[in-house]
Amino acid sequence: MAVGVLFEALSTANALADAGQVEEAQALAQAITIHFAAMGLWLDGAADEIDAVTRELVSQRDAARAQKNWAEADRLRDELVSRGWVVEDTSAGTSIRLP
């Protein structure tokens, strides 16, 4: 039953995207992805692509870390997490992935 509800929500996200409400569609798609992951299921596809805003947040976080501005780096990490990303620090910089 839960999977059925999530697929209905996915249809709604697609309808929002078709109607030009891209931000709302992306937010709903991220929430759906998180709920599927919580059930041990993964959706593959365009939702895994990193949007421009997220790329910019990662870039800003890497710059803050390079300047040892830990408070700003933490704030940016929290922003990425709130957008549904798993944030990992690597020697090459910030790495993000969907759960």
Architecture overview:
With 99 residues, the chain is mostly helical. Helices cover 63% and strands 10% of the residues. The chain is built from four helices and two strands. A two-stranded antiparallel sheet has the order 1-2. Helix 1 runs antiparallel to helix 2 (22-38).
Q: In the residues, how many domains can be counted? A: 2
Radius of gyration, in angstroms, nearest whole number: 15 Å
Distance between the termini: 22 Å
Oligomeric state of the chains present here: single chain
Number of helices: 4
Percent helix: 55-70%
Poorly predicted residue ranges: none
Strand residue percentage: 5-15%
User: Can you give the mean pLDDT?
Assistant: 86
Biggest sheet record: 2 strands, antiparallel
Overall, the morphology is: elongated
Structural class: mainly alpha
Return the string of H and E elements. Answer: HHHHEE
Major sheet: arrangement of strands: 1-2
Number of strands: 2
How would you briefly describe this protein structure?
The chain has 4 helices and 2 strands; from the N terminus they run H-H-H-H-E-E. The chain is mainly α and 99 residues long. Helix 1 (2-18) packs antiparallel against helix 2 and helix 3 (52-66) packs antiparallel against helix 4 (70-82).
Write the layout of secondary structure elements.
Layout: H1 2-18, H2 22-38, H3 52-66, H4 70-82, E1 86-90, E2 93-97
Antiparallel strand pairs: 1-2
Keywords:
elongated, single chain, mainly alpha, 2 domains, 4 helices
